[in-house]
Specification:
Blueprint (H helix, E strand, L loop, with lengths): L3 H31 L4 H12 L2 H5 L36 E5 L2 E7 L13 H17 L6 E9 L8 E12 L2 E10 L8 E8 L3 H8 L3 H4 L1
The protein binds Palmitoyl-CoA.
Palmitoyl-CoA binds next to helix 4, strand 3, strand 5 and strand 6.
Length: about 220
């Protein structure tokens, strides 16, 4: 049996590697949506990128299997689509909890463009849903979004450091109601998008039905 220290070292190494791959793929995505090179170059590059798939799928997981890189005593979702550093579709938003308030930071590149030079509204919803989830989790257990209401006040600028803040307003048993906002780091008092969300901790029976063996990861 391996020493716990070795296991932790191995996990830390895998996380660093997953983070590195996520960052490289994010650079690639950013370059792919900004490029103006000719069609022949694009076709050639598509072939080269496809050649990268088999080495990755040589060992892979399917739905219902947790990522091993998430594991360990301090579990974290490395491939979360909003905050997972290993997921190339995540900006990724970095989240910290300060005095019970969830604070996220990220910068959106051209891959997240909706209206020209501004963020796609669905991406704002993603970031707000995630930060509301973190706010809910400060009350002890992870929950699932059951309601999410958004008000888009001003467009969210791309390539600009953003601040996403969420806090719980009301707790009622396994339900919480929380509010969250997106603003720029430079002008935190001007709200660009605001959200109100209701989250629920699934009951034991619901968690078992929805997640089966994975239930322990989400409760
Ligand atoms: C490796 C691990 C590392 C972990 C790392 C941590 C990361 C920590 C951050 C994660 C952050 C993720 C953030 C993204 C979170 C998603 O993306 S979750 C995915 C999206 N959500 C879903 O798929 C949920 C789908 N919904 C469901 O499955 C079910 O609603 C649930 C959640 C199981 C709850 O079921 P239920 O208990 O039967 O409740 P349900 O009948 O659905 O709702 C009852 C009604 O009463 C309302 N209600 C009842 N009581 C209350 C109350 N007290 N207050 C307010 N409303 C109430 C409900 O809103 C609902 O309203 P109406 O329908 O009448 O309008």
């Amino acid at each position: 049996m391996s020493d716990p220290v070795d296991v932790d070292d191995d996990l830390a190494q895998r996380r660093r590697a997953a983070r590195e791959l996520g960052a490289a793929l994010r650079e690639l995505t950013d370059a792919a949506v900004s490029t103006e090179v000719d069609a022949a170059t694009l076709t050639d590059l598509a072939e080269q990128v496809r050649a990268l798939v088999p080495p990755l799928t040589a060992a892979s997981r399917v739905r219902g299997e947790p990522a091993t890189v998430d594991g360990g005593q301090r579990a974290r979702r490395m491939y979360n689509p909003a905050s997972g550093p290993g997921n190339p579709i995540a900006p990724p938003m970095k989240v910290e909890i300060v005095d019970g308030t969830a604070i996220g930071r990220c910068t959106l590149g051209l891959a997240y463009e909706g209206p020209p030079s501004y963020g796609h509204g669905g991406i704002s919803a993603l970031l707000l849903d995630q930060i509301l989830g973190h706010a809910h989790s400060t009350r002890g257990k992870h929950g699932m979004t059951v309601k999410l209401a958004l008000r888009y006040r001003r467009p969210v600028p791309l390539q600009t450091p953003l601040r996403i803040v969420g806090r719980v307003e009301r707790v009622d048993g396994r339900w919480t109601e929380s509010v969250a906002t997106i603003s720029t780091e430079d002008d935190p008092d001007t709200v660009l998008v605001e959200a109100r969300g209701v989250f629920a901790v699934p009951s034991a029976e619901q968690a078992k039905r929805l997640f089966g063996e994975l239930e322990r990861l989400v409760r």
